Amino acid sequence: MPDLSNIQGDVWPRLPKKAEGFYFFNITNPAEFKKHLKRLAPQITTGEEAKETRSELYSRKKAGKTGLVQLSSINISFSYSGLEKLGKTDLGDEIFRNGQYKDMVTDGLDKPEDWDKFYQGYNGKIDGVILVTGNTLKVVESTFLKSVQPCFSSGGPTTSMRVVHTEEGTVQQHDKEHFGWVDGISEPLVKGLESSNNPKDLPPVRDGTFFVGGEGDFFKSPAWAKDGSFMVFRRLRQLVPEFTSWCGKNCEDPTNMDVIRLFSSRVVGRWPDGAPLEHHPTHAYRDGHPEDPENKRNDFDFGPDNHLQTRCPFAAHIRKVRPRADFANDSQAMIRRGIPYGDWTEVEEKRGGHTLKHRGLLFVSYQANLRNGFRFVMKEWANKDGFPDGKFEACGGKPPGIDPIIGQVDKYPGRCNIPSAKNLQPAPPVSDREVEVERFVIPEGGEYFFTPSINALMTDLTK
Q: Where is the DyP dimeric alpha+beta barrel domain positioned along the sequence (predicted)?
């Protein structure tokens, strides 16, 4: 069982936040930085502290108290180049060492022209990122200026690091991401830290899937890395009006909003309110209520009829990235901690069918191994048209297709099998209806980081 006082709080249970800032930095003086990091370490929010704060917030909400609570939290993570400057080169992960650009652009799916120059080293290598969360962006910025920045200075400008880039995000109404679906639900339960009152829920995943050195982590890592986790950061631009238009274009009755809603929910695998199609295949359970227990059910394992797609299509986003019964185990599970950025899409912009404002998701995931986690999900599941395996018969002899939400169509066949929603009925047992996939999520850059334990921050990384 992970020691909550030794892990950083965003990995588990999640930092409480309505707003979040990502401060990407370059280490300019490693010797001085180690001294300054030791100053910052006591301010890092632990899993134990985050759990207590979240419990207090839930109690306050249950009691009917309203209004935002003034709060802020701090976490820190390092890229390979950052750890190298601190004398730590023994993590032994080639994917981590080479960085995200090589993995996802040079050897992967992303287009180099889509990547922001800051993530390509334009302003120096990104050695690390400081996460600051709060109830407002003003609180986030104030916390960084008053609590973080002074740790890296001697009364004036920072002397051991410089911030080379920043990103900011805010939680949208009802916890929805920009396409309009409740986000952050159906997270994997962590064995030893979480349990469920619902006997039908998926069993907790071994903690070594998320924490280095935990149960089920069979990769050899140095002792100092224990209780740490690899963090993936990605800025994903979302083309909301284009997605809305595409859904209408692929419906037999584009004037019927119920048909469009069912089709788009089949694309995602959930209704906008979060209710899974596995339990509500034709009509949503309840709209606009992410806190409703029904919408948080975690037992939709696409079984026992997982050889059919009469409810949730094989190509649906949630089925492609976490296939449950379609795959033998949960060793590829990730903990997701993303947050939206940009303004909500107005009706007039949707009607025009073209994106006018920059918006999307600051995607964050944690896993004990990048090859097993994020990289595997993106390259072997989401963007492989033959996955889930063994579904050709139910697709009329064709493959299920790529993920229609995050699929990158230029390097793989851009099709997916989404059954008709015309009659608002469950899909037929066999459906060979293919639709052409367009790019609605544009990766614009990111990096791989390692989020060390509190003990590592206080000792091994500051020697």
A: 6-170
